[in-house]
Amino acid sequence: MSKTLTRSMGLVAAVVAASFGQAAVAADLAPLSEPAPEAAAADPLGPWQIRLRALGVITNDSGHVKGIPGSDLSYSDTVVPELDISYYFTDNIAAELILGTTYASVDADGSIEGLGKVGKTWLLPPTLTLQYHFTDFGAFKPYVGAGVNYTLFYNQSGKGKFSDLDVKNEFGAALQVGFDYMLDEHWGVNFDVKKLFLEPEWKVDFDGTSLSGKAKLDPWLIGTGITYRF
């Protein structure tokens, strides 16, 4: 092999080696590529929930007229639509406000039963409860609650010889138990029971004589309907 060919082959080898060396250095200096961003997590549920229920209002038939032994009162039961709004502070703790209105007929009972119907009143019983929701049962989500009720009586009227019926607005305590069964992330069905402790003072005129007493309503509110969480 000639010296010229040998020198040519050596030069080619040197160039190739230098090229590989530069490529290795470039690879070492190249910045690491950014990892592919993970898919955005699904947005969590918001804190609001609404329910629309059919609500049965079942009263305790009890009360009295002052000064008349054995006197008693009874009241009509009703079924009305009701809306409630809940706000979740955490997955377990929520506040609920129920909104609805109903009416009650008031009848004389006990020793005054023969006097017949006393009158009729509409009532608006907004109730605010603080709830604890259990979250360990999958789609079945039971809860318990306790709170306060303020019942407003309006459009009151007497019947027959009774006139000027006036049932006083009243605060009362409230206890609650119920559950939602979620059909998907947002929609569900609901069953709910509340007990209100409500015993307002009342008065009425009977044939020119003023009567007064206490109406021991203490109603059960039993409702079922649909839930929407958003």
Automatic annotation (TrEMBL):
Alphabetical UniProt keywords: Signal
First and last residue of the signal peptide: 1-26
Matching Pfam families: OmpW
Gene3D superfamilies: 2.40.160.20
InterPro entries xrefs: OMP/PagP_B-barrel (IPR011250), OMPW (IPR005618)
Recorded family membership: Belongs to the OmpW/AlkL family.
Protein name: OmpW family protein
Organism this protein belongs to: Mycoplana ramosa (Mycoplana bullata)
